[in-house]
Write a structure and sequence with these properties.
The complex is a heterodimer of chains A (about 240) and B (about 300). In chain A, about 75% of the residues lie in helices and about 0% in strands. Chain A contains 10 helices and no strands. The longest helix of chain A is centred in the middle third of the chain and has 30 residues, at about 95-125. Chain B has helices at about 1-10, 15, 75-80; strands at about 20, 30-35, 45-50, 55-60, 65-75, 80-90, 95-100, 115-125, 125-130, 135-140, 145-150, 155-160, 165-170, 175-180, 180-185, 190-205, 210-225, 230-245, 250-255, 260-265, 270, 275, 285, 295-300, 305-310. Chain B has a 25-stranded mixed sheet that branches. Chain B starts with a helix and ends with a strand. The chains are: A mainly alpha (about 240), B mainly beta (about 300). Chains A and B meet through helix 8 and helix 10 of A and strand 18 of B.
Chain lengths: ~240, ~300
Amino acid sequence: MTCTEAREQLTAYLDGELEGERGSAVRGHLRACEACRQAATDEAALRDGLRVLPPVDPPASLWAGVQARLAQAEVADAERPAWRRALARWWLARPQLGLGALALAAIVLVIAWRVRHREAPLQQVASPLLLPLPLQAPAPAPASIDVSDELAAAAARETASYAATVVELSADAEHERAYWSDDHKQQFDTHVAELKKQIAAATDGRPRQKAYRALIRYLQRAATRDDVALAGSVH
Amino acid sequence: MWRVLLILCASAAPVLAQPAQPAKDSSVVERSRVEVAPAGQPFKQLQIDNPLGDVRIEGYDGTAIRIETHKHAPDEDTLDRLRVSLVPNPDGTVRITTSADKTRESKPVAASAVRIDLVIRAPRNAKVDASVIAGKLELEGMDAGGELDAASGPISVKNVSGEVWTHSVSGATSLVQVFGSVDAAAISADVDLDTIGGERLVASVNRGRIAGRRVRARDIELTTTEGKILLEAEAALHGRLVITSLRGDVDVRLRRHGPTVVRGFGTKVDLGAPMHQLPGGWMTSSFGEGIEPAVVELRSRYGFVQFVAID
């Protein structure tokens, strides 16, 4: 797999939409290619950072502006000569055009249905490597960012970096898993599940980051050692 | 009663503060100095959280805490939004936090336009728990260790005793002359260790290098996923060194004081002495004879492993 191919599939990979060989190929490429791995980490961190930005209400002036533009359009329409308004009505009412529009809409619907149908099975499959990390719902980006917003976002970015590292190390540990005995696999799964529970239970900010660090260290040990005390304590 | 006195003392900061003055880059700067003396029991712990700039903590032989604050802002109104809060508790803990207040009237200002730097002189035997985001975090001359946390700012620890924990996402970590157990973790940054002596040394980096010299601990555990590990250490009697990396090279020079057994695993292994093969692709060498030897385990799945014993 080339870097271009890997980058094209990166978004789907991070969304857990690649299954079987496709996911394995991207994972294998990320393992070998530092640049693509960095791109994957950056993208994961960016997405997680965007998800936790605080929501912002649109300013009242925005709606007022929209209303003003609508009013201007109505005034301009009213000022047009009567023959131009009549021509416009006739043009829209022509039956041939109506049929054409109907046919076009049908074609668009068929294409949309086919595209949706093709994507649907992929969305149902999530890679087991992508751990269910506690993330907040996506929110729109603020119009003007203040230092207080930036500080909140910085803390969220820090947590997102830890989350991205967990994804990366999970892939490494998963690769090493092939060399483990069944007992080790079971101990590993139990311990990872416990550490993930602690992450989910921790409050935002430092406590959650601390919980992430425990999981990161455990995964790193699991990925780098043969005889790691898989059920052992982590500092 | 003494707590009230301390808060009053802290409230006196504006009195001690120099008048705000425009700097060369048309920003305004305010410097202030506060000293908080213990009225009852001595200060045992400092908790510092400064997301807006640098933190430097220096130990000294006194009993009071001296805080020097440097605030930078583009204008007077923004400067007024920058707060340093100091809360001493009866249990001997002092909490220092910084923030930028936000009101409906305040105009938005970028984080890069404001800054609060703290220089704190504290009794040597106080434990420190400090965190920054992008600022520099320095701890020097303390005797009770501490826990330091940075997102992208560098961490520097020098001449410190006691247990030390450091965590960083992307800021370099440097520990020099630390006498006590050390636990250093970084995600994408280097960790440098120089003159470390304690019971236990644990360092882990995901993407970055670990370099250690003049290291002596009974239990040493260094781990990287991507980066190299370079270690020049002294083996404690019956000590244990576990140096592992997934894709980085491992290079260890060990000054030994007794019998030592070394095991190595890597794409290429050089233990600096005749080697014997063990099951699972491991190689082993022994240096000296005796019971309860020091044990060295070096492993890199995709990197080279090199070991040199210095008698």
